[in-house]
From TrEMBL:
Belongs to the folylpolyglutamate synthase family. It comes from Deinococcus reticulitermitis. Residues 280-395 form the Mur ligase C-terminal domain. Keywords: ATP-binding, Ligase, Magnesium, Metal-binding, Nucleotide-binding. This is tetrahydrofolate synthase.
Amino acid sequence: MNEDRQVRWLFEQQRFGVHPGLVRIAALLSRLGEPQRKLEVLLVGGTNGKGSTAASLDAMLRAGGRRSALFTSPHLTRFGERFVVEGQELPPAEIEAALARLRPQAEAVGASFFEIVTALGLELFAQAGAEIAVMEVGLGGRLDATNALDPRLSVITNVSLDHTAILGNTRELIAAEKAGILRSGRPAVTGVGADLLPILEREGADLWALGREMALETRPLGWEGAEVRLRLPGGELLLRTPLLGEHGAHNAALAAAAAWRLGISPEATVQGAAQVRWPGRLEVVPWQGRRVLLDGAHNPAGAQALARTLGALGAAPLPIIFGAAEDKDLAGVVAPLRPLASRVILTRAQLSPRAAPPGHLAPLWSGTECVQAADGAEALSQLRPEEETVLVCGSLYLLGEVRPLLLGEGAEKRERWQ
């Protein structure tokens, strides 16, 4: 009954919100004996695509013989998804035991939920004997808990408007926050637009940028992903990635460039790129004779990329199951998707207090046939027999509730804030 007592305590900390800053996480890591110093750390930040980029880089490192760990957030279905070593989630009992040891130190410094999770990941990775940790940045960069680490290399995927109340309401301000994960004189790769590169260059990193030091050509392979040709200073890589969409190819390319700079062989990089899997981000799940496409697009840039991919795949018009957090730019998310919808089933993530009620979403889909469903299960039940391809999108928390229904898996029943 008490086998997850510590994890339940941790999830209670979500309600205290996000508190940017490095003082508490630094104090916590110090009390834990600096577990991050046992690891070679790589930071992956950006507005969108940082999770798939981190997962691709982890796969390339493992193919290259490195004992790699992967830290990502948020999770879809299981808390353990955030802590992966050698491609495997760490056992719940191991996580619970590590958290029991960490909890008194976290309480002593007043650490926030994400600060605790970050420290927990580092403690688990060091304990598991990982050599290198690919750490996905949580929010922004400069004041994110992961930035208390000392990365050998950093990646910034892109910059667009999201979390503007915390990071600033312009791309320039957000870029300055994300640039905080760069380190002077150390290698970095980025896919940000040329107009923002001067902001990143202020940090003095040895920066390679797509469109400048790196040239990218992609050949779409439909539902199979893409072929990517990447020209780099000193060489060229030709690889295939199962990640869908042009942005999926870009993310794979950034990971490949990072692997190149870390000395991973071209052969291992190609092998890792082909093996990457990233659930809930343009993921195709077969279900009852249908193709269900899951995507966590939750900001306008992500929705635009999703819309471009659907158009390129010839998947539209199609039914969309949609639910999103009330505090997002919902009009900006819906605008690029609305023309692609044959109809919309509006629902909400039951475990997310931030989720918008379906009735609040309906006006955004004006001119589109809309029905409402209480939860993901009811939304799936409202699909019509002739609807063979369907999109579920808008909220990673919604995907986290729908995905186990499609796969016939169990799911955690924890309230989700972060």
